[in-house]
Specification:
elongated; two-stranded antiparallel sheet; about 0% strand; about 170 residues; mainly alpha; 2 strands; 7 helices
């Protein structure tokens, strides 16, 4: 019974229907609850970890950045959203290549790096842009990034407080 259920799950994940083919994917042992099947399902583009886990959909960096940019432009604080960690993970991944199209999100990635203090994210992004031939500036050191960000954050804070003071003055008139 266990083997039949397991083979049904493998068939669902792989899209295979023939028992002989499914058995090739089955690397389980009868007494093991969670069993590794294989690392990549190239057909579906999903990464399969364990037989009883749902496949993880391939994450599209561009669509996540587009969504985050929409939130950011609407004035929503995006820095605590789980998508931020996904973006950082995808950019830092050696398997993620960047294209000319991603350059339009450079400012957003800069802001994410600044507000999460992730110098590595910005440096890797700059390196990937350079490798793609769309970035010709120097890759900034962590110290330089932190200094720039401190200055920018201080400026943002000043703007925030001065806007608050102006609002208070207008309300008191």
């Amino acid at each position: 019974m266990y083997q039949i259920i397991q083979h049904e799950k493998i068939g669902t994940y792989t899209g295979q229907k023939k028992l002989e083919t499914i058995q090739l994917y089955d690397k389980s042992k009868r007494d093991v609850t969670y069993t590794a099947i294989f690392k990549k399902n190239k057909k579906a583009g999903n990464i399969l970890k364990m037989i009883d886990e749902e496949p993880v959909e391939k994450q599209d960096l561009m669509s996540i950045l587009q969504t985050l940019a929409g939130y950011y432009n609407a004035g929503i604080n995006i820095y605590s959203l789980p998508e931020i960690k996904t973006v950082a993970k995808l950019i830092k991944s050696s398997s993620t290549n960047v294209s000319n199209e991603i350059q339009k999100y450079s400012d957003l990635i800069w802001e994410i790096g600044k507000h999460t203090a992730d110098t590595e994210l910005v440096q890797i992004f700059q390196l990937k842009l350079k490798q793609a031939g769309v970035f010709s500036d120097e890759i900034l050191s962590a110290d330089k990034l932190e200094a720039i960000w401190q200055s920018e954050l201080a400026s943002e804070e000043d703007k925030y407080f001065s806007a608050g003071e102006q609002y208070k003055r207008q309300m008191n008139k």
